[in-house]
Amino acid sequence: MQERQARAHGLPTGLGAKVTLAANLAAVIAELHRQHHYVVDLKPVNLRFYPKSLYMAMLDCDGFSIQGPGIRFIAPQVTPDYLAPEFQSKGLTPHGEESQDRFAMAVVIFQLLNCGIHPYTGRPASDRVPTDIPGRIAKRSYAYGLRANPDMPPSPVSGHASLPHDLRRLFDRAFEGLGA
Questions:
Q1: Among 102, 136, 149, 171, which residue's CB has the most CB atoms within a 10 Å radius?
Q2: Whether pTM exceeds 0.70
């Protein structure tokens, strides 16, 4: 996700390639959801792509929630840094798996388009901001919104301001709690 690492490995760094990767990830997730399967523990370390085609591949799939004939095999593990705010304190239920996938995918895409920066990192300006990412997610301490967060200014190396306005509005909906 970081440009310097991508260049060192001969991987694409342009916005077009990143948008294609994001679209391909969304297509994979949509197809899984169409079949009533959920990733649940979606995070960058479990994703790879083919450099020439930009197709996505998923690793470590043993945590998927799978719909079998008449039975659901749930996924009990999650990574707190990618867990939706509504599940941070009370835990994830099978009814929330699709919304969990959507939130985690939004985080991954934000990181992909913003040099690996997590949407809940920034420079806390008050002691009301939790020090850990799960705590910041729970409090919706999103630093990169169209409206400035007075308690959490963005990282100075962030490129979020150059993203298209409509895309930033979608990120605001995903991360500020205004609904998907």
A1: 136
A2: yes
* DSSP symbols for 68-95: ETTEEE------GGGS-HHHHTT---GG
pLDDT in tens, the chain (180 residues): 566 776 776 777 778 889 999 999 999 999 999 999 999 999 999 999 888 889 999 998 878 999 999 999 998 889 999 999 999 999 999 899 999 999 999 999 999 999 899 999 999 999 999 999 999 999 999 999 999 899 999 999 999 999 999 999 999 999 986 544
Nearest-10 Cα torsion for 157, 23, 79, 50: -90
The candidate with the shortest Cα–Cα distance to 82, out of 112, 111, 103, is 103
Q: What tokens does 96 get?
A: 């929330």
Structure tokens at 142: 């999103």
| Beta pairing partners, 179 | none
Coil, helix or strand at residue 64: coil
User: 80-97: buried (b, 16+ CB within 10 Å) or exposed (e) per residue?
Assistant: ebbbbbebbeeebeeebb
Phi, psi of 38 (to 5 degrees): -135, 140
CA 130 – CA 143 distance, rounded (Å): 13
